[in-house]
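Hey, weird one. I pasted the DRAM1 protein sequence into the form twice and got a warning about non-standard characters only the second time. First submission, copied straight from the form history:
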Amino acid sequence: MLCCMPGVAFVPALLVSWSSAAFIISYVIAVLAGHVEPLVPYISDTGTKPPESGVFGFMINISALLASITMYIRYLLIEKQNESSHFVRSSCNMFTLCVGLMGCTGMGIVATFQELAVPSVHDIGALVAFGSGVVYITLQSMISYKSCPRWNTYFVCHIRMAISVISLIAFIPMIVFASKISMTKIDWTPGEKDYTYHFMSAICEWTVAFGFIFFFLTFIRDFQRFSLRISTEIHEE
């Protein structure tokens, strides 16, 4: 089904479906194994202990790779559109790509260094991933408005900006509440110390994560109009 999509629309579609599956599968395994409570654990909590840690690490690393490819194609698409419209500076487009790739690097760190094994490195990776991700989708929303009405509809731009604002609003309390938690653990139970901070921070984290997924979902229509051609030149001596 993905291969039947026109252009390169299958790339963001695969990213969205794979990332959603990564979150859901690791969550289900962790809950069934009794490693986390079903009520809103951190995303990283669902990928800390085996067997879910292996699934989580593998699938999130693939998600980071797919996100990098999606962002690069998006960069190429804007560059191509910009040749005739000149709606954004090339340096701004490149900066947006670099911010996005930084977020993908953070995802790789989160997937590789488990929460309980190397908590400081894991937390830095999560901060980079979520922080850079929020900045990336915000910049992309602004670029989308600049490309209207030729390359985007205002409806799509409004949707993207709404997702960006919600993600930003959720990102701030996510960091604030997480900073108030005095211990690193995954087996939280209601009523214990810092549980409220953990619960609120986890809700915000899931909100931001699925905000990214819904944002990339809006790329599918744009990517349908774009195809990549690889040309090779053979020089005879």
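That's the output from the first submission. The warning seems to come from a hidden character in my clipboard, not from the data itself. Residues 230-237 have pLDDT under 50 and may be disordered.
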